[in-house]
Design a protein that fits this description.
Layout lengths: L2 H21 L9 H22 L12 H34 L1 H42 L2 H21 L13
Helix pairs in contact: 1-3, 2-4, 2-5, 3-4, 3-5, 4-5
Length: 179
Amino acid sequence: MTGSRTLLVATGLQSVLAAVLVARGAVTFVRTPLADAIGVLAGVAVGFVLYRLLAARDASAPQRAGTGAIFALALVYTAISVAEEILWRGYAFDLVAASRGAVVALIVTTAGFAIVHGIHQGYAGVRFHLVTGLAFGLTLLATSSLAAAAAAHVTYNLAVLLGTVATRKRAFDDPLAVG
């Protein structure tokens, strides 16, 4: 299976599972609107800071892409980011925290998040996602908002996407020749 097909399948499966968990009430995405709105702003800030600190370039971004492909990837990255947060920082975190406490839940979900990414990104992906997973988990703990963790994750992934395509051949000067 090609990288983009794998990404689409993973996005679809995780999104369906996350939607089922939210629909069944197993995960509450928005708890208190005002607190979550403030948390989302904090999450956006965390995502940008994380991107700037790691200065990562995601290999899944296209080397040559038109505006439509970049927009499509942005939608996929957004969907998978929200779905992963619902699964890892929503469902799994709450499940572990209920019996073992928040610190153990942070460790377990961070490790699980990293290992899952390592399946297709190797050891470097595990190390890298230990950092990002920890940042998203700490965002959840600091704000008590799953929406904030999702905002951090979405912001980070979109910054990676835009940073990757923007640094290739003056992408914003010629959006059809990104690469």
